[in-house]
Amino acid sequence: xEQDKKRFSSRQKKTLLRTFxxxxxxxxxxxxxxxxxxxxxxxxxxxxxxxxxIQNELTEEEQVFEDEKKEVSELNKTxxxxxVDEDEIRTDVIFVVNLNTITNKVKVVSIPRDTKVIWTxxxxxxxxxxxxxxISISKINEMAAxxxxxxxxxxxxxxxxxxxxxxxxxxxxxxxxxxxxxxREIVDAIGGVDMYVPQDMYYxxxxxxxxxxxxxxxxxxxxxxxxxxVRFRRYPRGDExxxxxxxxxLKAVAEKVMSQSVSSLASMVTRLFPYVKTxxxxxEVLGYLDLLKEFSLSGLTFHTVxxxxxxxxxxxxxxxxxxxxxxxxxxxxxxxTVQGEEPIASDASEEVVVDTTVEVAVYNAAGVxxxxxxxxxxxxxxxxxxxxxxxxxxxxxxxxxxxAKDKSKALQFFDLVxxxxxxxxxxxxxxxxxxxxxxxxx
Length: 442
Hints:
The structure is a single chain. The chain has 13 helices and 19 strands. The chain has helices spanning about 10-30, 60-70, 120-130, 145, 160-170, 180-190, 225-230, 240-255, 260-270, 280-285, 320-335, 370-380, 405-410, and strands at about 75-85, 90-100, 105-110, 115-120, 135-140, 175-180, 195, 200-205, 210-215, 215-220, 275-280, 300-305, 305-310, 315-320, 360-365, 385-390, 400-405, 420-425, 430-435. A hairpin with a 6-residue loop joins strand 1 and strand 2 (about 90-100). The longest helix is centred in the first third of the chain and has 22 residues, at about 10-30.
């Protein structure tokens, strides 16, 4: 019976609230510096925390699905992050930031802007009630425009957020919509960001006042340069490559932000909050900023809804790979391994792919001079292509980590880096990035 379902104890509820507010604080800090592609200052008439005016009665089947999403999400707290385009109505950047309250991990899922959406009956009813018109197919970034978020930001729940919930089979707890002015200011406030720009980027749009001129290679990006990076769209692999660059930038900024003091973060959040449209309260974020000290960037990973971009229907859409999506949902939302307790040894069923052509970067996090160089020699002697050796942004770490775009290709390094944890992260710059801690010094 329904009333026989297991309920949280008072202590569990307090823990759940605390972890959710940590997620809100972490997310907000990340959000205010997040890459907002192609946006202008967001319309100040939009009310923060607004609710939808649409009255959409659910069918019995739809209500069952809503209840299932909420039940599955009890221990997964999620915040949807949006950036709007130059028209201030399309959500051209879409992230879902998830905090698993069992594992204490924060995982960021990117949803490409061109993702094809076949509108559900529920969404069609909401659109008809709002406009008197009908629609069946669109891109996900267009749903907010059809939902007229420039008139009522709360409508974003009936359209874009509803579709995100359908795709990921979760319940979205809160949302954040950010403007570009806040983005530029925060990048400058933290002293800029160092990042490897993956290709030459040149683009001029006098109408938008947009001038992008970045060279391939390691660059120090201030607010204006960072804006150019995240707004650039001309990649050989299209939106997929753009998302990867955005994730790499966000990771670099997160590292810089997390090095700031709590008081500096509080000042930045307070100053930038008026530019943000969200249903998270400012006092909640500020009240829990101290808890950011408990958060480790090693628990932050990035993922992208799997699929492929194509234009064989005429319009260019991003088509979701449903089979791979199932695996991603399991990895992100059904993870039960607590941060820091991941098994070191690989599963015997996992295939080890030996590929000596992968590009490898080695970073010394042990705080002992010459460690990265010794590992470079060791890896090169084994036939691997080491393209970068450097000190890590953190020093004095005990644990080693092997970051890989493809986990199967990381397993071949397991015996070469004793005791290392393997983390799959498609946003990293090189194929393999090895962070060497003191426990792996031979």
